[in-house]
Amino acid sequence: MLTIFWLSLSLLIYSYFLYPLLLKLLIKPKSIALQDINHYPSVDIIIAAYNEESCIKARIENALAQDYAGELNILVASDGSKDTTGEIITSFTDPRVKAFNFPENRGKISVLNDLIAQSNADYLVLTDANTDFKADAVDILIRSFTDQVGAVSGELILETDDGNQNQDGLYWQYEQLLKKYESALGGLLGANGAIYAIKRELYVPLSKDTVVDDFCIVMNVKKQGYQVLYNDLAIATEEVAPSLKEEYGRRVRIGVGNYKAFMVNLWALSPLNGWFSLCYWSHKVLRWFAPHLMLVIFLTNLALLGTSFYNLLFVGQVLFYALGLYGQKKIDNGEKVSGIIAIVSFFLSMNIALGQGFLKFLKGHQSGGWQRTARSGDKK
Could you tell me whether strands 123-127 and 196-199 are parallel, antiparallel, or unpaired per DSSP bridges? Predict the structure, then answer.
């Protein structure tokens, strides 16, 4: 029991705290050298949308405004939207916009598979319906490629409105930092779904029940033997979900997708993959099983009660969970909470959602359909 307790606690601490320190000791990130291009390759920007009338027009206009010297088209589709998304995308007269208004809602992956099948471009840039690119984002992504590089992720900056207590933006900055180190080490895992590019011929169609498409698409590129890079000069912005409550359902769904992705990518567990395997175990696998580790730590600590040391540790755990639940209740009621309480609440909510996603995964949850996160510009 003692060994299980300390092993579980050590793995949890390692994944969130010691692993980032290890990366900092192992590698120093360097700026990616941008290639000089005489003949710019063709690019298709891929956008799948569902009920995005509040932002899809601005998204397409932002894509059209990219400062890219080569051929650039936008392939955008509405997946059976119940609002005016379909009408908006088909209203564009610019020949660079190829709009598809699918009447039936089939899920994001089905739409991506269909759109990419229509593409003849050299490169694909995948993005979200509520994302904004800086004007040079596509140019920087494409100039980051070499013969050995199969995918490049850009940097996503999450914008938080005043009064928004969702700590996703803070956690995202922490995740971005890890991506920079992992990219330099050759172990980048997945991409920022809002801004990444791949060589079109490397795209492998995914099953319709795939949820974490950005992760799986890039993992398939890596599986084919190509490098995956992270270039923080290619910048996109996106708003944080209005609240933890709005974000929770999305995190449960992503949790289901994570465990599906784990089963599909068992090849990545092999130590023969070198640094990539270390990053995968440390950054993904241990994080995905953090709820399990937290439960084991709590139960084994309970069984070890009887000495002042383990009694104190257990009290600390109870206070930690109580603080998180207290903060979550206040946030749900629209009340302000201090920074540490908000962070604890976010961490707890994130792992509860992940645990719920695991239970749904065990029950055979198969849906790859949409679960749209609320936007600040949505109609009330």
Answer: antiparallel
Residues 282-320 as b/e (b if ≥16 CB within 10 A, e otherwise) read: bbbbbbbbbbebbebbbebbeebeeeeebeebbeeeeee
- Who contacts 52 (Cβ-Cβ below 8 Å, separation ≥6)? 59, 78, 81, 83, 85, 129, 130, 372
CA distance 320 to 330: 16
- Cα distances (angstroms) measured from residue 353 to each of 17, 260, 320, 334, 358: 21, 15, 17, 21, 9
- Domains of the chain, with CATH numbers? 43-245 (3.90.550.10)
CB distance 209 to 368 below 8 Å:
yes
197, 141 in Cβ contact below 8 A?
yes
The count of other CB atoms within 10 Å of the CB of residue 266 is 8
Nearest to 58 by CA among 246, 214, 237: 237
Angle (nearest 5°) at CA 96 between 95 and 102: 90
| pTM for the model | 0.91
Per-residue pLDDT of the chain (380 residues), as tens digits, is 899 999 999 999 999 999 999 999 999 888 899 999 999 999 999 999 999 999 999 999 999 999 999 999 999 999 999 999 999 999 999 999 999 999 999 999 999 999 999 999 999 999 999 999 999 999 999 999 999 999 999 999 888 665 454 555 677 788 889 999 999 999 999 899 999 999 999 999 999 999 999 999 999 999 999 999 999 999 999 987 665 566 788 889 999 999 999 999 999 999 999 999 999 999 999 999 999 999 999 999 999 999 999 999 999 999 999 999 999 888 778 787 777 888 898 899 999 999 999 999 999 876 556 556 655 555 54
Q: CA 272, 278, 279, 284 torsion: positive or negative? A: positive
Residue count of the chain: 380
